[in-house]
């Protein structure tokens, strides 16, 4: 949900936001407007020959008791001021709503103590006191005498809930609106101006900032606080919790003599050096691809087993920066940055690096040129969306014959040395994702255009950037300047690249625990995830039940057959019935039949394709909040500990030996554990469609095509997206829209290639998919419309290279935005 600043969703999401804003605002004032025995309050008649502006303020009654939550009683004062006009104007209530200043304990990420850097501070709701400067809405006809707040769009249910949680929900919405802008003229500015003004990415030194990032910091601080009481050597806590604690308390130390044999400072390589052994070793021990990258996932032509997918590497910069002429300056800047970093690295391990200045300069230039050649040989993102073309299965013997200059044996032996090498000559499959790239790589290592020293310089440079946060100082600053994201994070998980991070995140909290928690979140995802979910207590079951119900409703709303009443519409139909003017009772009337849903309204989709879509929806696995089989009942942790112990257990031993001096070893063990436990070991295990892939404490949601599953981790179910105690309108506008978005990913240009069980469906030589030929033509036309629509969206920056959205690259997210928010909010 790329390289552009992302602060809002698609058009349908914006419309949904306006609807939710209106509804929640009405929730806040229902009780007061209908206060006296729910008697309807007539709207004041229009004042002839004048414009009426109504100013409403909410005044809280005085109380002699300490207020822990807002009092529900309020007094509404209304005044009408007249201005000269020749038009008849309907009075518009524009409130200045003051939310009571009420404290609630929350973990703060901005202050630290010696005992714990995550401390509790009072959280005060921000009062919304903005008065709109927009022009009043006018009408030339008198308003009928109808009950206030009782319309088709906003039926009167009775006394509203003025609880703290409802007021907090409204405060979230109102605090983000720029009411100096008319939403009818610029809805983007109306909804986003305030957020952009308060979170300038340039000031923060990052390429992207979002509510998700803010929430993730809060979640990480909460985990750090929960870990404060964990004793590393106490059997009271699970081994998983103790491993998480042991890594978190380690201190940084400088490491200057990491490499033996560094070509750019004149060192020769050791005798018998094997390039592909080094590549496999780096990938297993540092979760970092170099000239290629391996990943274990479900074999999506034989879903009863896993396969090892080998693909082109993920480069430090977007491919476009390397190959398009308008970004030549980016390459020049990168060459200078690498030169400075390599020189500074030489300075930390040598008394005088000056004699090697020429070699360092050449090495930096060679590295940038090599990256550019890799980029030119790589497939662009638009080609990475077709999985029939990327599924090229081989036996090891055939692979060696096809690309003979690539030492596959050395690479695979080093890569699988800890996890155990499968029989790649038997049933285990090796899948080459981009055949033409490996043809280029085969030619590269067989020719005389590069030597091993140059390639080793490239690998060492990547490692320096991988460890930049650990090395600190100029190295960390260089990584920030380069917007460097560690390899495992920019590569993502699974074929859909779940959790892929394209921008370096901000670290401006001053809380030393947060970077550590973030590291563990990526490299041992279920450690902090378990700590977070366990700390939620019994409420977790209520939230899980609510999200399950919500998701099923959204899915039905999207998939309901045409000849049945629309699930949510049928509920609203009860309130569309006319009232008897005398009794006020609604007439008995059956819900209308045949209200079209999204799927049934697609004329280009044949009935056979719609049936296939229904089968896919029925087969979709839903993962809610946390992995139940792994976490169990939160008392018996044997299964969880057995999952982590082989790859992470020795971290506790290193901690007990000397956690200060062993920190680097502990960190590397965690990264190696991630590569083995979350990827390579899967080769000898049966696929599990309920695999979360990421941490339950990770603020995101995702769809996995190869498993046909949607996953909503617990961490995402927090404000501003969801709160169990918030109005349902708020929750459906937030998490409901997200649920719809992820569901629609199952039917976007990638999702339609995979069937109900996650396997590639009805494959031909050039494509896979369960749609009929006619439906595919219609789908492609629809998708091209979305591509064209988003191609026209450009950054407002008027100088330098103007960056526009690439509609072809982002079409999956755009289809999910446009199609997913509607079933969640209507």
UniProtKB/TrEMBL annotation:
Cofactor dependence: Zn(2+)
Keyword annotations from UniProtKB, A to Z: Hydrolase, Metal-binding, Metalloprotease, Protease, Zinc
Molecular function terms, GO-annotated: metal ion binding; metalloendopeptidase activity
Taxonomic superkingdom: Eukaryota
InterPro entries, A to Z: MetalloPept_cat_dom_sf, Peptidase_M13, Peptidase_M13_C, Peptidase_M13_N
Listed Low complexity bias regions: 49-141
Keyword Methyltransferase: no
Region annotation Disordered: where it falls in the sequence: 36-146, 559-598
Annotated Gene Ontology cellular component terms: plasma membrane
GO-annotated biological processes: protein processing
Compositional bias of kind Basic and acidic residues: 563-574, 582-596
Residue span, Peptidase M13 C-terminal domain: 700-821
Residues covered by the Peptidase M13 N-terminal domain: 183-541
Sequence similarity: Belongs to the peptidase M13 family.
Designated name of the protein: Peptidase family M13
Species this protein is from: Ancylostoma ceylanicum
